[in-house]
Amino acid sequence: MSDRFQFTVHATDGRARSGVIQTPRGEIRTPAFMPVGTAATVKAMLPESVRATGADILLGNTYHLMLRPGAERIARLGGLHKFMNWPRPILTDSGGFQVMSLAGLRKLTEEGVTFSSHVDGSKHHLSPETSMEIQRLLGSDIVMAFDECPALPATEEEVAKSMRMSMRWAERSRDAFGDRPGHALFGIMQGGVTRELREESAEALKAIGFDGYAIGGLAVGEGQEAMFGVLDYAPGFLPQDKPRYLMGVGKPDDIVGAVVRGVDMMDCVLPSRSGRTGQAWTRRGQVNIKNARHADDPRPLDADCSCPACTGYSRAYLHHVFRAGEMISGMLLTWHNLHYFQELMAGLRDAIAGGTLAKFVARFEAMRAQGDIEPR
């Protein structure tokens, strides 16, 4: 493998792109969905099982890992890849989004954010410089610039002030990141749902120069229509030859809509979180395995799915083990959800490469409109 980080677009269909991100630890096929391994694990899954679903890259969480077990400890133990037994690419977020959610436990200044740990109440400080150092210790392949993500709704003045500070932090992140061959730094566009602010943010990031660009500050309460409204123009403000990453998205229809609008990478806790709470995502929509109608159903979740949950177990069994509180419930449903999300990404990649994206989207929407199979 090359020690370079490189993005190549192999095909386009409208604004959608399919391609490959080359890293020293392997290729990332795009459009890509990144399962979230918040605390150095995708909950209820072995790393090799996550890979078996088709995942090329995982996301780790800087905020959670810095608190427990600590970035220095992970570095002493050989880095995050070795620590969690995932030899392929890892992207780490900067910690900014999690700190945003601690509004009552933080103090925000131009320098950075001081906050109290949700684990033990201890005081910590995150700045562009400390975030870059923590992510360096973790050894992630793709590092995210430190930013502030304002919760929506917010006034345009508040969003503009926050965005401009994030752009100053982006420049400090770039300086602190330095020259790290084989590792990439992504800048994060902010600006809420205001076109002019999004464009201003994109211009500032391009002037600094990054290996990739994220679209942040969406999927934080604005609704799908508003999010798609931003995605109708925001990807076009970013360089054509760099990957575009939509942070924290999302549901299958969010993913399809984002890819159609030119997004290359996404992440979300939804597949694993849903699996642990008895929710399955299928090509016909969402299934709540808790419902009593599944108790005597010998059919699989999805007869066309090749995951272990669908090829080896009935809806009746999945209903039973969830109701009984057995760990295998979360394991099987999470595996199914991750498999389905990766199958969706593979279908999008193939459709873009074949110039049939419109037909793929029409089939996707038609299947979801049918709803789940009828009870027996």
TrEMBL record:
<feature type="active site" description="Nucleophile">
    <location>
        <position position="267"/>
    </location>
</feature>
<protein>
    <recommendedName>
        <fullName>Queuine tRNA-ribosyltransferase</fullName>
        <ecNumber>2.4.2.29</ecNumber>
    </recommendedName>
</protein>
<keyword id="KW-0862">Zinc</keyword>
<keyword id="KW-0479">Metal-binding</keyword>
<keyword id="KW-0808">Transferase</keyword>
<dbReference type="GO" id="GO:0046872">
    <property type="term" value="F:metal ion binding"/>
</dbReference>
<dbReference type="GO" id="GO:0008479">
    <property type="term" value="F:tRNA-guanosine(34) queuine transglycosylase activity"/>
</dbReference>
<keyword id="KW-0671">Queuosine biosynthesis</keyword>
<feature type="binding site">
    <location>
        <position position="310"/>
    </location>
    <ligand>
        <name>Zn(2+)</name>
    </ligand>
</feature>
<feature type="binding site">
    <location>
        <begin position="93"/>
        <end position="97"/>
    </location>
    <ligand>
        <name>substrate</name>
    </ligand>
</feature>
<dbReference type="InterPro" id="IPR050076">
    <property type="entry name" value="ArchSynthase1/Queuine_TRR"/>
</dbReference>
<feature type="domain" description="tRNA-guanine(15) transglycosylase-like">
    <location>
        <begin position="15"/>
        <end position="367"/>
    </location>
</feature>
<feature type="binding site">
    <location>
        <position position="147"/>
    </location>
    <ligand>
        <name>substrate</name>
    </ligand>
</feature>
<feature type="binding site">
    <location>
        <position position="336"/>
    </location>
    <ligand>
        <name>Zn(2+)</name>
    </ligand>
</feature>
<feature type="binding site">
    <location>
        <position position="305"/>
    </location>
    <ligand>
        <name>Zn(2+)</name>
    </ligand>
</feature>
<dbReference type="InterPro" id="IPR004803">
    <property type="entry name" value="TGT"/>
</dbReference>
<comment type="pathway">
    <text>tRNA modification; tRNA-queuosine biosynthesis.</text>
</comment>
<comment type="subunit">
    <text>Homodimer. Within each dimer, one monomer is responsible for RNA recognition and catalysis, while the other monomer binds to the replacement base PreQ1.</text>
</comment>
<keyword id="KW-0819">tRNA processing</keyword>
<feature type="binding site">
    <location>
        <position position="217"/>
    </location>
    <ligand>
        <name>substrate</name>
    </ligand>
</feature>
<dbReference type="InterPro" id="IPR036511">
    <property type="entry name" value="TGT-like_sf"/>
</dbReference>
<feature type="binding site">
    <location>
        <position position="190"/>
    </location>
    <ligand>
        <name>substrate</name>
    </ligand>
</feature>
<dbReference type="InterPro" id="IPR002616">
    <property type="entry name" value="tRNA_ribo_trans-like"/>
</dbReference>
<dbReference type="GO" id="GO:0005829">
    <property type="term" value="C:cytosol"/>
</dbReference>
<comment type="similarity">
    <text>Belongs to the queuine tRNA-ribosyltransferase family.</text>
</comment>
<dbReference type="Pfam" id="PF01702">
    <property type="entry name" value="TGT"/>
</dbReference>
<dbReference type="GO" id="GO:0008616">
    <property type="term" value="P:tRNA queuosine(34) biosynthetic process"/>
</dbReference>
<feature type="region of interest" description="RNA binding">
    <location>
        <begin position="248"/>
        <end position="254"/>
    </location>
</feature>
<feature type="binding site">
    <location>
        <position position="307"/>
    </location>
    <ligand>
        <name>Zn(2+)</name>
    </ligand>
</feature>
<feature type="active site" description="Proton acceptor">
    <location>
        <position position="93"/>
    </location>
</feature>
<keyword id="KW-0328">Glycosyltransferase</keyword>
<comment type="function">
    <text>Catalyzes the base-exchange of a guanine (G) residue with the queuine precursor 7-aminomethyl-7-deazaguanine (PreQ1) at position 34 (anticodon wobble position) in tRNAs with GU(N) anticodons (tRNA-Asp, -Asn, -His and -Tyr). Catalysis occurs through a double-displacement mechanism. The nucleophile active site attacks the C1' of nucleotide 34 to detach the guanine base from the RNA, forming a covalent enzyme-RNA intermediate. The proton acceptor active site deprotonates the incoming PreQ1, allowing a nucleophilic attack on the C1' of the ribose to form the product.</text>
</comment>
